[in-house]
Amino acid sequence: MHGCTEASTAHSAPHARGEAWPILSQCVASGQCVMAALEVFDQREEDGVAFVLDERPSADSLEEVREVVAICPVVAIRLVE
Ligand code: SF4
Fold it and tell me: What percent of the chain is modeled with pLDDT above 70?
């Protein structure tokens, strides 16, 4: 088990062309990602740290994830494409 201060999606295998997924680290529990991309992110009840719900977001959700990457106050979210 790992905490959400580490990468919450531990992909090690190469991904197929055209796929993308969010990676999350160093979260400070501000909540913007959940508000902007509700289907992709959620927050732990105990401390509000975010985690990735959907590791393979749809095209629509990917647009939201791109927005979240830009608004996260601590740049905790990275989108691997
Ligand atoms: S926007 Fe960033 S700091 Fe805020 S909850 Fe999401 S990952 Fe954590």
Answer: 77
* Ligand 1 and 37: CB distance under 6 A: no
- Ligand 1 contacts CB of residue 76 (under 6 A): yes
Cα–Cα distance measured from residue 32 to residue 12, given in angstroms and rounded to the nearest whole number:
27
CATH number of the structural domain spanning residue 45:
3.30.70.20
Q: Residue 15 has what pLDDT?
A: 53
Count structural domains, the chain: 1
The type of residue at 17 is: R
Q: Say if ligand 1 is within 6 A of residue 73 CB.
A: yes
**Within-domain flag for 67:** yes
**Residue 5 located in a structural domain:** no
